[in-house]
Amino acid sequence: MLQSSFTPHLIEAGCDEVGRGCLAGPVVAAAVILPKNFTHELLNDSKQLTKDERNSLQEEIKQIALAWR
After folding, report:
1. For residue 60, how far is the Cα from the chain centroid?
2. pLDDT at residue 12, rounded to an integer
3. Which residue, 29, 35, 30, 31, is CA-closest to 64?
4. Which residues touch 19 (CB under 8 Å, ≥6 apart)?
5. Which of 23, 31, 52, 65 is the most exposed place for a label (fewest CB within 10 A)?
6. pLDDT of res. 22
C-alpha cells in the first residue's frame, strides 16, 4: 500500500503518467492532492486494476480530492 504522505507539514501532490513516450506516441500525465491519511484498498497500482475499477476509482478520487488535474 502507498504511504499517505511523506511529510506531515506539507501538502503533497501525487503524480503519474501513462504512454509509450515521445518516440512511440503521446504521454498523458496527471496529479492529485488527496486529504491527509486518505486510503483506498484499490489505490496502489493502476496497471493491476480492471477498466471498471479504474473508472470507479477515478470518480471517487475526483469527489474527495482537494485538487486534481
Report:
1. 11
2. 86
3. 35
4. 25, 26, 27, 28
5. 23
6. 67
- The Cα 20–Cα 25 span in angstroms is 6
What residue type is 25 in one-letter code? G
Q: Write phi, then psi, for 4 (nearest 5 degrees).
A: -65, -40
Amino acid at position 1, single letter: M
Supply 63's cell numbers: 469527489
Residue 48, C-alpha cell as written in the block:
493491476
- Of 30, 31, 39, residue with least CA distance to 5: 39
User: What is the identity of the amino acid at 8?
Assistant: P
Question: pLDDT tens per residue, the chain (69 residues)?
Answer: 556 677 878 888 888 888 776 677 788 888 999 998 888 888 877 778 899 998 999 999 999 999 998
